[in-house]
Amino acid sequence: MDISEVEIWFRNNLGDSAFYLKVFLVVFVTLLLNFIWNKLQKNLLLKLKKTKNNWDDALINSLAKPMVFLIWGAGAWVLVKYLFDYQVTQTIRDIGLVIVISWFLVRFIREAEHNIVNSNINKIGEERIDQSTIEAISKLLRVSVSITTTLVILQTLGVSISAVLAFGGIGGIAVGFAAKDLLANFFGGLMIYLDRPFSVGDWVRSSDKNIEGVVEYIGWRQTRIRTFDKRPLYVPNAIFNSITVENPSRMHNRRIYETIGIRYDDLKVMTKIVDSVKMLLLNHPEIEQNQTLMVNFNQFNNSSIDFFLYTFTKTTDWVKFHAIKQDILLKIANIIEENGAEIAYPTQRLQLEQLEQMEMLNQSENMTKAESKQ
């Protein structure tokens, strides 16, 4: 008895029950395969997490959901094959396979990006890869996979790829004029990723556009900056092509540059004060000795004689810098007081003796004029 005779026997004796039996078997096998895959995936992850290599973990994590979709899609395709025309289901099958493969690739790119970022945390110096560069490469790869998937699906549906590309070449000019701002922002973001004037987490500012804050996100169209009053600032990337951006986060040191004035009566102790302040800076543990360090008598001001200090701290942390600066300024105030001097403040000095002499002269002139008239 061959296969056709078996089918005829089932149809004659069981009627439609054979069809339901086939459906049950397909669903059962699909559920069984899905159950086996879930168990296999969990066991593999437990074993692979014990290894130092993170790429095998990324591979299994990337396969998890696409494989489930593939199993259920295969089961659905087997069922649909008996209900619809074979050519139609073959097209759907091919599109489904393309979607599953592209989904796996996108997930693997994300997992790879995550692994590289995590491994990059413990690196220092030149070995460290810029996070913005990692994100840019990841985005470019995902966009490439998406475009390739779209073209393959169109090809599978019978659409001419050459016609699509030709239309894209002709229509690209019109699209370029219509979306010039969007393209400008896109290429502005590309330049940020290539030139790397700043990265996520950097403190940036620009006096040209009154921009200042911490970079939170660099996208293809805009960059999000969190200002110091905690407001989000969304800046189109094209702006950065035409403004000057300062990145204080990449400073090597922070500068202390202050001018301090004492009274004219304290000119005789100016040399001692300047020398003491200089020794203070030379012996201070938070002052960078390899940078310029100056303390000098500077000028005769209107109501004070001034000296200045010019030096750099080892730290670039904003909060710690101000604590160091406060400590130095308070110690300078003590040095001035120890030398019997005082910090000057704006004053005016009236010479009363000269005023009295001038009044006496005026009175004598008036008396002389009065006597001459008599």
Feature tags:
Alpha-Beta Plaits; 374 residues; elongated; four-stranded antiparallel β-sheet; 3 domains; single chain; alpha+beta; three-stranded antiparallel β-sheet; 7 strands; SH3 type barrels
Structure description:
This protein is of the alpha+beta class. It folds into three domains: 3-121, no CATH class; 181-249, Roll (SH3 type barrels); 251-338, Alpha-Beta Plaits (2-Layer Sandwich). It contains ten helices and seven strands. The strands form two sheets. A four-stranded antiparallel β-sheet has the order 1-2-3-4. A hairpin with a 5-residue loop joins strand 3 (222-226) and strand 4. Helix 2 runs antiparallel to helix 3, helix 3 packs antiparallel against helix 4 and helix 8 packs antiparallel against helix 9 (318-338). It is elongated. The mean pLDDT is 79.
Short account of what is shown:
The chain is an alpha+beta fold.
SSE map:
Layout: H1 3-14, H2 17-48, H3 55-81, H4 86-121, H5 131-156, H6 161-178, H7 180-195, E1 203-206, E2 211-218, E3 222-226, E4 232-236, E5 254-262, H8 270-283, E6 294-300, E7 305-313, H9 318-338, H10 352-373
Antiparallel strand pairs: 1-2, 2-3, 3-4, 5-7, 6-7
Helix pairs in contact: 2-3, 3-4, 4-5, 8-9
> What's the rounded overall pLDDT mean?
79
Query: H/E series, N to C?
Result: HHHHHHHEEEEEHEEHH
Q: Which spans have pLDDT < 50 for at least 5 consecutive residues?
A: none
Class by alpha and beta content: alpha+beta
Give a quick account of the main beta sheet: strands, pairing sense, barrel closure.
4 strands, antiparallel
N- and C-termini, Cα separation = 164 Å
Oligomer: single chain
Radius of gyration (CA) equals 40 Å
